[in-house]
Specification:
9 strands, globular, homodimer, 14 helices, nine-stranded mixed β-sheet, alpha/beta
Chain lengths: ~375, ~375
């Protein structure tokens, strides 16, 4: 196994290498857990949608794209205000080239997608400034635990990922409630990361919820209930349920670090089966620091797919190199998984070719 | 492979043998699709519940039993009016002994189960006498097709099954609309099969819908929309989606023959991957004739698990020998699959031991 050209390890290299060897040529399954939080409709918080209201359509549109190759709940595809396409375009390519099976989990969304999905009894989340953000947290966690267990019986490794607009803000709130990192190091789908706005929202959320830094260190589900989003309990359960049996790649950027921290607290025994899988774009982001966040949680493997759009003929894709989008819909994790699942037959070169041809088809549809 | 002690073939023996060889020692996945139809609340139609209203709880209670080992949406376990336990008690044993992964699909129920399930956008069905029984038929079919395809990527064979009270009446209506068999040969969970009542309901349903025998021979989804139940479109899609890639056992009694007929009409190419798997009790039923129904659909393999409660110490189980229950919740199909998946390590003897010990625990819980 030599993946160095396609995958770069940014933390705990020996653990990463050992885990990737266990996944090499083995049967992976990709999952994407969707959720909505009204936090994403606070103007300026989320760029994952052309307008604040459209951010509520983005998760469902993303997974419709994965399943059908086109969106149903909205016209066109989810884009940032600048016209830059959803990272689901990368995930689509990784899934198509690898042939990996994949499943969507509905953690709780405002707009239901027109696809088959696992339901865990979740609902759209409230604005975290209420301090009472997510319903049915324990129940969703428990149900997703069962999904993780079932999928782990049928596969050799699993990718957990997310599409949840506003999710870096909720992640920041949960990371602070859990006492992991005070500093605002979470990412944004915009290069102009609205850090002050996020800080003020998180501050207000924690105050209303009566939480000081680290108060909920021992109770991640309560942190999620108060200041998280509905993607989280489902994904935490899924990760714990699967990682008790098989290696799990947490595919995503700083949003998924809240899931990582919560999952490890719920069941520390899973540590040896966990790796974060993201993109070169996210790791290179000067406005966030996933490596430091991961280090604050533990000595955990972190790997990034070396996808590079610098030579892309499409401005919408080139924007990723200027700090737009960078991650989401498990685009990094699915790409890493595609390389491992296919024992290297899928790689950055074949992914890039496929992304370009898919993207050209999408441009024709718009 | 010698399964003759545990499994008896009742139709197309060579095809059955060939298919079972392909599944022997291979990785199976069990599914159960639940649905409700208000048809089951017509007094006298369904015994799958202690009262007509409780029949609407039975599907969800059944799958809660499979997932949690206990019911949540109701107290106790689904029973016939005489106190005879749900066939889910058999399915539980088959799943536990084989360790097979399993998933629940919600085709459309009145009472949601407290478990994770695949949602396909279905709703509780209307009384078939309306002639307009099931909503979103095409959409549910299409979504379930995707589930079948995904599960077939991850497993070597699949069991499709059902829990839907009132389902033999809707099956009779669909079989007649499709012109397969005029005679009323469907089963009942009671030895006193209310054949006249079912006939009069089906007659009224077909009349209201304006369907004569065989009118919808070429359009099974329209037959289901008019006089079927919401378990059907989901299960038809699942079966077609999976059987395009891998062998599929249709686990169930006469209810599943409507699914069988519809699936084969939707995609005749799946024929070589299809087998009906049921129980000795159902095949022996003097008040129904699954063999003749299957023959009316085609030269299709039909096998039965040789479970025998004659020596059981429990009256509730012995009742199966007197014509009560006999099938449901894929109890026959899951048992056959457990034998195949485990390459014979699970067999009627180990199943029986497990059913007894599970049933004794359940009696303590009630």
């Amino acid at each position: 196994m030599d993946v160095s050209k396609d995958i770069t390890v940014h933390n705990a290299p020996r653990k990463a290498e050992a885990l990737m060897k266990r996944m090499w040529g083995k049967k992976g399954v990709f999952t994407c857990t969707i959720g909505s939080t009204l936090t994403s409709t606070i103007p300026g918080v989320s760029d994952a949608g052309d307008t604040p209201e459209l951010t509520l359509y983005t998760p469902s549109a993303d997974v419709e794209l994965l399943v059908h190759g086109r969106t149903i709940c909205m016209d066109g595809i989810p884009i940032n205000p600048g016209g830059i396409p959803t990272p689901a375009t990368v995930t689509m390519a990784a899934l198509a080239l690898s042939g990996m099976p994949f499943h969507i989990i509905n953690g709780g969304v405002k707009v239901l997608p027109s696809i088959p999905y696992f339901d865990v009894g979740g609902e759209c989340g409230r604005d975290i400034r209420t301090g009472d953000s997510v319903s049915n947290v324990h129940d969703c966690y428990e149900r997703a635990l069962i999904i993780g267990d079932m999928l782990a019986r049928s596969h050799d490794f699993l990718v957990a990922s997310e599409s949840c607009a506003g999710g870096t803000t909720t992640a920041l709130a949960v990371l602070r409630a859990m006492g992991l990192i005070e500093e605002n190091l979470v990412s944004s789908s915009s290069p102009n990361n609205p850090k002050e706005l996020k800080d003020s929202i998180v501050k207000q959320a924690l105050e209303t919820a009566g939480i000081s830094f680290g108060d909920l260190r021992m109770d991640p589900l309560e942190a999620i209930r108060k200041v998280g989003d509905p993607m989280m309990p489902a994904n935490v359960g899924l990760v714990v349920g699967a990682a008790r049996r098989i290696p799990v790649i947490l595919g995503g950027g700083t949003q998924m670090t809240a899931v990582l921290a919560a999952a490890l607290k719920m069941d520390p025994s899973i540590e040896g089966n966990i790796m974060v899988g993201t993109t070169r774009w996210l790791v290179n982001d000067p406005n966030s620091d996933i490596v430091r966040i991961v280090k604050s949680i533990g000595d955990l493997p972190l790997a990034a797919i070396n996808l590079d759009y610098r030579e892309s003929p499409h401005d919408g894709l080139k924007a990723y190199e200027r700090g737009y989008i960078k991650e989401g819909v498990g685009c990094g994790g699915s790409s890493i998984a595609a390389v491992l699942h296919s024992a290297g037959e899928v790689n950055c070169k074949t992914l890039l070719e496929r992304i370009h041809s898919d993207y050209e088809k999408i441009l024709e549809m718009i």
